[in-house]
Amino acid sequence: MDGGAIVARLKTRLGARVTETHAHRGDHTAVVTREAIVEALTYLRDEPDLRFDLLSDLTAVDYLRYPGREDGPRFDVVYHLYSIPHRHRVRLRVPVEQDDPVVPTITTLWPIANWLEREVWDMFGIRFHGHPDLRRLLLYEEFQGHPLRKDYPIERRQPLIGPNV
Amino acid sequence: MGVGGFFTSKLDEAIGWARKYSIFQYPFVTACCGMEYMATACSHYDVDRFGAGLPRFSPRQADVLFVVGTISHKMAPVLKRIYDQMCEPKWVVAFGVCTCTGGFYNNYATVQGIDTIIPVDVYIPGCPPRPESVIDGLMKLQDKIAAGAQRF
Predict the structure, then answer these.
(1) Could you report the per-residue pLDDT of A87-142, keeping only the tens digit for each?
(2) Which of A50, A156, B52, B103 is the most exposed place for a label (fewest CB within 10 A)?
(3) d(Cα B16, Cα A89) in Å, to the nearest integer?
(4) In angstroms, what separates the C-alpha of A90 from chain B's closest C-alpha?
(5) H helices of A15-134, where?
């Protein structure tokens, strides 16, 4: 199915909870509110002619001081879906505020989300409500802060052993 | 030089000669340099010509620690522990520019040269180093092993 048609189906289903849609070079994106994301992903996964059975990526973007988005929500959590039977793709984004960086977990929908959400927590400090084991994935427990946040000092080093260079 | 000194220095030479041709390496491979290490170790370039053909996968059986690939801060305590587990006499080779200086990684994750953690005998720069560079480094290590005072 064409990406535009997929996004239109989602918009019919969720109404105003799809706040924005756009397309870039054939890749279609729907911006969904945080409250609607689980319902949106469940719908995309289970509807027979959509069948997005593969969560190919779950990541985040920090828009701190991003031109044109200074007053908007700081983070976007991004979901990339692919359907193996239908061979089509779609992308969903959920804006997240800096003061309340929490998104519901989707580990119940795709088990792979477990590690992907842990990585997003590790790198961006976004928590996933309901996650069974939200520990750091790549960095060590002693690490302070979240290095892919734009306000993480680029020169800051936290070695476990050896000099701090 | 007395008679005792004569024998000690000759014994040192003999042991140094033996040691430089029986390098049992422990390859600590973490990244892409590992492919180049394998290319060097295999029959085409053949490090067995230098007596370094038998990698040991236990640090307790190894003489030379080959650190091959980027070392992250999370990995650093593991590398230190492997080094501490090796028996004397022991040597360390920093294989590739990441182990020498951190290479082009200067970020929150990467150790800026393994010599900040453990002592290094030979640095082989390159990203990755060509087999010729590795063999050159290996021969420099052999010279260093043979020339040093032998403890036994």
Answers:
(1) 999 999 999 999 999 999 999 999 999 999 999 999 999 999 999 999 999 999 99
(2) A156
(3) 64
(4) 32
(5) 37-46, 113-124
Buried/exposed B93-114: b ≥16 CB within 10 Å, e otherwise: bbbbbbbbbbbebeebbbbbbb
Report the gap between the CA of A148 and the closest CA in chain B (Å): 10
Contact A162 B108 (CB under 8 A): no
Distance CA B8, CA A56 (A): 67
Q: Where are the domains of chain A?
A: 3-129
Q: What is the pTM of this model?
A: 0.87
- Separation CA A27–CA A2 (nearest Å): 10
- Suggest the residue from A140, A148, A155 to mutate for an interface test with chain B (most B CBs closer than 10 A): A140
Closest partner CB to B76 (pick from A156, A161, A165): A161
CATH class of A3-129: alpha beta
Residue A149 touches chain B, beta carbons under 8 Å: no
Read off the pLDDT of residues A3-52 as tens digits, 9 standing for 90 and up.
Answer: 899 999 999 999 999 999 999 998 999 999 999 999 999 999 999 999 99
Domain ranges of chain B: 3-147
Is B112 part of the contact surface with chain A (CB cutoff 8 Å)?
yes
E strand intervals along B18-110: 25-29, 64-68, 91-95
Q: In Å, how far is B143's CA from the nearest CA of chain A?
A: 29
Q: What amino acid occupies position B142?
A: Q
Q: Which residues of chain A does B112 touch, with a Cβ-Cβ cutoff of 8 Å?
A: 165
Q: How confident is the model at residue B13 (pLDDT cuts 50, 70, 90)?
A: confident
The minimal CB distance from A160 to the residues B76, B107, B108 is found for B76
Residue A51 near residue A63 (C-beta atoms within 8 A)? no
Q: Which residues of B touch A154 (CB under 8 A)?
A: 107
